[in-house]
Input
Amino acid sequence: MALEIIEGCVNCWACLPLCPNEAIREARPHFEIDPLRCSECVEAYAEPQCAAICPVEGVIVDELGMPLNPPGSLTGIPSVPPPQASLQEGH
Ligand code: SF4
Ligand code: SF4
Output
């Protein structure tokens, strides 16, 4: 049970000091989570601290690859624009 930091991380350092297990380390091209140390914060906090502070959507994922901050969750901007009826009507 561990989270993973993937491509898109901007190496901002926000998450690293918050991890209760010192599981996050500076790395290139992006920071990394040690899967042997990450507990997903289950016993320490109500929510994963790294995902709670991360300012970038989609870069911290669970073991299934699902983002903890999916597109639109931080910005409020939907990732898929609503259909435009005028285009379908030939305008
Ligand atoms: S989920 Fe918690 S334990 Fe795992 S890397 Fe993030 S802050 Fe650390
Ligand atoms: S807070 Fe997010 S963007 Fe910043 S270093 Fe951690 S994973 Fe990367």
Summary: The radius of gyration is 17 Å. Residues 49-53 form the longest helix (5 residues). The mean pLDDT is 91. Helices lie at 49-53, 85-88.
